[in-house]
Design goal:
alpha/beta, 7-stranded parallel β-sheet, 15 helices, globular
Length: 402
């Protein structure tokens, strides 16, 4: 395969390593680099690496798509690249169906608003074809989708129950919410949308209400609290955790359910809450033989196993993809020996680790909680945007108070 051969070229891997270091280190403002920035830039032949990235964009392998995306974004952000090279990188992003990245580049003045006018006719034709093939129409609004979202839309139109699996930020919630809006525009529909936490209840409710307002579906009832439904002649969306769903099914055992969405469906593997979730899935399916069931989970190797919980005669299929919408960096921080305020950062890749440099904390951390808080704060240079995961509410509070 051409993409494999290009990706494994020693000359490409050397250049790509330089691109990775540049893209990661530039997001950490106060890092003392291990590398000379000019030396890294001297390693890269931008025209060569852009041409390879354009070939990788049509691969289905995660590492190829990730490389193509990272190269394109670095080219657009790099001060030393030309306008023509930036436009070529934007074409690659369009080939990846990553329209949000292109729009963001335009908003931040890295690209001209009308840059596509300068493209050759064949590229314009290709971009128009991609846009057409990866778009849906709701009312009179054209919704542009990425490859993964388009696959989900096609799959659900051909099947009654689907299980979708993709990496974080691929756009699972976006396409599911728009599919639900399409169903509501067509006919009266009762929808149950199950999420694992109360925080996600608020997020999903907010997203759905915004879309309902956009499409003038003010008559649709949206609720997050189990309650009796007096008027069965209107459409309803119930956003619940599995516990609230259990309560609701006790209160309204006979309300017909047309669509059943299970977000973060891999949580069915949890102990007590997973057992409850599985029981409620079976109860909804048994009580509504024609219900459409949509499972959504992070990227897993066997999403089809979730469809075994839908024990009816409906048509079933999966959408399992490694589609990459954003680059993610796994950085390992270790304290420099005998220097409490200095921490070495290493980028962890699948096949190796790259030492990036050292950050210096403004204060000397005393204890594990302060280490986590001070290192996270240093990453953003005393700004915002960091999330620290901890083991429980009490630990979270201790870290926040540091």
């Amino acid at each position: 395969m051409l993409a494999d051969k290009l990706y494994n070229l020693k000359s490409f891997r050397k250049q790509f390593d330089a691109v990775i270091i540049l893209s990661v280190c530039r997001t950490i403002e106060n890092i003392d680099w291990n590398y000379s920035e000019n030396e890294l830039l001297g390693t890269i032949d931008w025209n060569n690496i852009i041409s390879i990235a354009s070939a990788l964009a049509y691969s289905k392998k995660n590492e190829h798509l990730d490389a193509s995306l990272r190269i394109s974004q670095t080219v657009i952000l790099e001060r030393s690249t030309s306008a023509l090279q930036k436009e070529a990188a934007a074409v690659i992003l369009l080939s990846l169906t990553n329209n949000p990245a292109v729009q963001l580049a335009i908003e931040r003045n890295y690209l001209e608003q009308d840059f596509q006018n300068n493209l050759p006719f064949t590229l314009k034709l290709q971009n128009d074809r991609l846009t057409f093939c990866n778009s849906i129409i709701l009312e009179e609004t054209v919704i542009q989708l990425n490859r993964f979202q388009n696959d989900v839309y096609i799959c659900q139109s051909k099947n009654d129950s689907i299980s979708i699996s993709a990496p974080t930020s691929a756009g699972k919630s976006f396409i599911l919410c728009n599919i639900l809006i399409e169903k509501l525009l067509q006919k009266q529909t009762n929808i149950i949308y199950v999420v694992p936490t109360r925080a996600l209840i608020s997020q999903v409710e907010s997203d759905l209400r915004e879309l309902l307002s956009k499409y003038n579906l003010s008559a649709v009832n949206v609720t997050t609290v189990p309650q009796n439904i007096d008027n069965e002649k209107i459409s309803n969306i119930f956003v619940f955790t599995q516990e609230r769903l259990h309560w609701f099914l006790c209160e309204c055992p006979n309300l017909p359910v047309d669509i059943f969405v299970v977000d973060e469906a891999h949580k069915i593997e949890d102990s007590y809450r997973g057992i409850l979730l599985q029981q409620k899935i079976e109860q909804v399916v048994n009580g509504n033989p024609n219900v459409k069931v949509y499972f959504s989970s992070p990227f897993t190797s066997n999403p089809e196993i979730l469809l075994e919980n839908v024990k009816n005669n409906s048509t079933k299929d999966k959408v399992n993809t490694q589609f990459v919408a954003v680059n993610q960096n796994l950085i390992y921080a270790t304290q420099v020996p005998r220097k409490v305020d200095k921490w070495k950062l290493s980028l962890c890749l699948i096949d190796k680790s790259i030492d990036l440099g050292v950050i210096t904390l403004q204060n000397r951390p005393n204890g594990e909680f302060k280490k986590m808080a001070f290192v996270a704060n240093s990453f953003s240079n005393n700004g915002t945007g960091n999330i620290i995961y901890s083991n429980g509410a009490a630990e979270s509070e201790k870290i926040a108070l540091t």
